[in-house]
Amino acid sequence: METDYPDSTVHSGKTELLDKFFRGAIDGAVTSVNGKLISESTIMVGRYPGRSIEINLGDGQAIVKMMMVLREKKMIMVQTVSGTGNYPNNAINSFFNSFNLKKKLCRGWSTFNVIWMFLI
User: Where in the chain are the domains?
Assistant: First the structure.
């Protein structure tokens, strides 16, 4: 999933805004699924900042692993959902390790490898 934001709101180059921006995104993700945050880490994808999180769903029935990356003014999010008995696993690790940002195509157009994977 990807979302564009106005430059005045947030931009990957405006480092003073990033912690607050990602805190809101993480809190929103956890709240939207009525889950509990298990872990959170700061990541970089190429030169772009991001966060990797894990969310407990349904009192331990499932785990959401999500990666959020801010490329300039575009937020890119990928996630997996897995039953707790099947987490972690090599497929999830391979999926997240395969994520990359492609080069811009031309004047404002971009393309990304964005995939949602559900493993239950």
Answer: 2-118
8-state DSSP, 78: E
* Residues 6 or more apart in contact with residue 108 via CB below 8 angstroms: none
Q: Pseudo-torsion of CA 94, 90, 43, 21, nearest 10°?
A: 90
DSSP bridge partners of 57:
62
When pLDDT is cut at 50, 70 and 90, the band that residue 105 belongs to is low
Of 87, 25, 82, 17, nearest to 52 by C-alpha is 25
CB neighbour list of residue 46: distance below 8 Å, 6 or more residues apart: 100, 101
Position 4 pLDDT exceeds 70: yes
Q: What is the dihedral of CA 74, 97, 100, 120, to 10 degrees?
A: -60
Global pTM value: 0.81
Q: What is the CATH number of domain 2-118?
A: 3.40.1000
